[in-house]
Write a structure and sequence with these properties.
Two copies of one chain form a homodimer. By secondary structure, chain A is mostly helical. The first copy, chain A, has nine helices and no strands. Chains A, B: Residues 9-69 form the HTH tetR-type domain.
Chain lengths: 204, 204
DNA sequence: ACTTTTGGACTGACCGGTCAGTTCAAATAT
DNA sequence: ATATTTGAACTGACCGGTCAGTCCAAAAGT
């Protein structure tokens, strides 16, 4: 009944884990299939038994990872709403959820950012879908906030959503790479202040 | 006896331009030296006459590009200051300068973002220096703004600077890749609104 | 109970091909 | 004259993908 045996699922999981860190470190094309297999404790042929090609392994990895991210963002938004919080509060909670995700899966985030804007690559279309999934969660909250009256009607939803996602992404990676002594709360506080407009102040 | 003749400088320039687009498209390791030479209209041997290695060509490219960026940001800040504008105004001008830069040199930005957070690479130290150069310009303006009283003393300068840079970077790349029909003014307006706190509505 | 068969999962040597880097003699520019 | 470029040949390493064969647990046959 189970088309994928537990044994096979286990092997796949090990390959994902090996691939994600290696590709984050060295990039897709300078990571060899043999290396991935070796780190997963498996023979090279096994990779090709489980995946059609190196790219396919990578694409499935992307789908899997972004699935985790959007679920986590959505959950943060829902949980805030259930508590009767406003949309700005939801955005704030999503920022924190994003930071937590990146903290937990730093390699995946690195790899996502590094590959997202490349053109002409085989997995371009996969990335497009996957990006849209992530941004859509933020866009939805912004839309609701505008309908709500809580957010100004002037805001440009797609652009603002992209900017917010970018802010979190880059701030988190930077935190990780260059300011790792700071706490998650520090980073969250700094981003939250930006979101609430306590940096550029409200006038003019 | 110019240590670098104009002829040589010209060849270098052509190689930079060829390398930047190719590497942005396909990544460092799947771009071959022969390809770069061919696109530059130059023989492969010439590459090795002008640069020690492929990596060295890439590192010099990074230094060259970030030099252009920081100069452009600094100029925007200075020009605002000369007009008697405040620090928030300077930040706004820098956002625009950043967007313009990315619009003019999209390939360089792609490549920078894709390589910045990789670990264990040969040019890691070059990237660190180069990133610090770019972020420092923003940090300086923030510091002045705090000293000024124009910005709250509560803001966390390194984290806020990183977040602002990230916001611009990702918003611009996203604009380029997924929303290219929007005008530069639209994108600038959206980011400006975030900076001025007109999204999360400010008082508290 | 016990042998035999089956087929999914895995292995690793191997193949065709690519690429960075080196070398160099001849050509061309300054 | 000297600096720079050319273009082609060559090397040695590496890499993605293939494939004939091994392993083994469970089903089928006796």
């Amino acid at each position: 009944m189970d088309s994928t045996s537990t044994r096979r699922r286990n092997t796949r999981q090990k390959l994902y884990e090996a691939a994600v860190t290696l590709i984050a470190e060295k990039g897709f094309s300078s990571t060899s299939v043999e290396e991935i297999a070796e780190r997963a404790g498996v023979a090279k042929g096994t990779v090709y038994y489980n995946f059609k090609s190196k790219s396919e392994l990578f694409e499935e990895l992307l789908r899997y990872g972004v699935g985790l991210l959007t679920a986590s963002l959505q959950e943060a938004a829902d949980e805030t709403a259930a508590r009767g919080g406003g949309k700005v509060e939801s955005l704030d909670a999503m920022i924190r959820a994003g930071l937590l995700f990146i903290h937990r899966y730093p390699a995946f985030t690195q790899l996502y950012v590094a590959e997202l804007w490349r053109t002409n690559r085989a997995w371009q279309s996969t990335l497009l879908v996957v990006r849209q999934q992530a941004v859509a969660v933020v866009e939805r909250v912004l839309t609701e906030g505008v309908a709500n009256g809580e957010l100004s009607e002037e805001i440009d939803i797609p652009l603002t959503a992209a900017a917010l996602v970018g802010m979190v992404l880059v701030a988190a990676l930077d935190w990780q790479a260059f300011q790792s002594e700071r706490s998650l709360d520090d980073v969250h506080a700094a981003l939250s202040r930006l979101l609430h407009g306590r940096v550029g102040g409200g006038r003019s």
